[in-house]
Amino acid sequence: MAFDYDKYIRPGKLPHIWCPGCGHGIIMKGLIRAIDTLGLEKNNTAIVSGIGCASRLPGYLDFCTLHTAHGRAAAFATGVKMAKPEMNVIVVGGDGDGTAIGGNHFIHACRRNIDMTYIIMNNNIYGMTGGQFSPCTPTGAKASTTPYGNPDPAFDIAKLAIGAGATFVARGTAYHATQIDKLIAEAVQHKGFSVVEILDDCPTTYGRRNKFKSVIEMMNRLKDIAVPVKAAEKMTPEQLQGKILTGVLYKEEKPEYTTEYAKVIDRAKGGK
Known about the structure:
Layout: H1 24-38, E1 45-49, E2 64-67, H2 73-83, E3 88-94, H3 95-99, H4 103-112, E4 116-122, H5 157-164, E5 168-173, H6 177-189, E6 193-199, H7 203-207, H8 215-225, E7 226-228, H9 229-232, E8 244-251, H10 257-268
Parallel strand pairs: 1-2, 1-3, 3-4, 4-6, 5-6, 7-8
Antiparallel strand pairs: 5-8
Helix pairs in contact: 1-6, 4-5
């Protein structure tokens, strides 16, 4: 039986703007399946984005949505959650929007452990604004601003999130489409700041410059470098060289920010 995606799509908004071969549509479908599995109400679910290819996603979805300023998605989402702690808040965006211009907002959202889920679609480049290199562009890879190869080391988004204080961190790929909804659903259910990084190649501004022959080649690369956490436990460091761990990478229970802030308000009003 086919899944009914249409009931979650805003009328008149398709076809989408993403390039042929882009994995953003795969991720959007995974998000929809996760929301459906959890039974989240449309009017009690806010989906927030900044600027970029990935950040166009909320425009297609029939929920409470915000398409905000570049890099400021986490800040706007924090405002929504503080005003309405009962809402399900989900942030979506790319690696440039989330870890470059939005990097400061990202790490402090992690630090506060506010109850929301941030889905970062990591395609290793600024796709919409001209193919510039991002903090996640691999060393040596080409971009419009690094035509002779990127000299910078790349961020590991998962390690960055854990180091900044996120209490749930997971990673998937656009190739492993059936895993995406499960990771997102578990992230949304977690009480605290959750980060789901999804590796998602850009065939247009990254693939062409870096001499990938086809989208299929790029997807097969994602398949080849991804290693589930459980499988990695049985592998040697040499076997894991050049690989990326997938699945739930980190999870802990800590006090959640809106709950702790409510206590501050109570004390200010004379409570204990």
